[in-house]
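To: structure desk
From: M.T.
Subject: fold request, one chain
Message: Could you run this one when you get a chance? Sequence is below, nothing fancy, just the single chain.
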Amino acid sequence: MDFPSKLIEEAVNQVSKLPGIGKKTALRLVLHLVKEKPESTFALTEALASLRANIKFCTKCHNISDAGTCSICQSHRRDRSIICVVEDTKDVMAIENTAQYNGLYHVLGGVISPINGIGPSELKIESLVTRITQNAEETKEVILALSPTMEGDTTSFYIHKKIKELPVKISVISRGVPIGGDLEYADEITLGRSISGRTLFS
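Reply: Done. Structure tokens follow.
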């Protein structure tokens, strides 16, 4: 692809590093930014710079947060006896959009994937065990809400093995979510029913 400017080429190269964005889409976006008013482009760059400089992760559940503790963990309206274990923040957002769940979350930051060099130690599994242990009287149920893929199932089995001796009920979301699918792509009705119809982990 020939570029009229080295500046355009560098911008396209950077934008195309984003997931799901190829060089042609990146070029369209960059050319759009060039046509926009300067303040619009600067507002975008300032928002991204602020994001990287100021974003935090909740010290309790590891969800993305503006403060040390996220709004979900701080809320007194949440059912603190249930912890829903998810892979990433996008899964928290997907479940919240169903309006079918009112408990807490625990974000692992990924799933076990040896082929990608991700083992249990790279995930927030030990902090989950510690969290359950330290709040044994309060925590009654752990929902394993990981995507029904080989990696997700492997992670669920590993977590189950780590916490099965603890005094909590371990459940898994109903397989209304398609096998091999990602939670972020499931429609809200299917995902909501999966949460409501969760079953015991076995």
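Reply (cont.): The chain has a mean pLDDT of 92. Let me know if you need anything else for the meeting.
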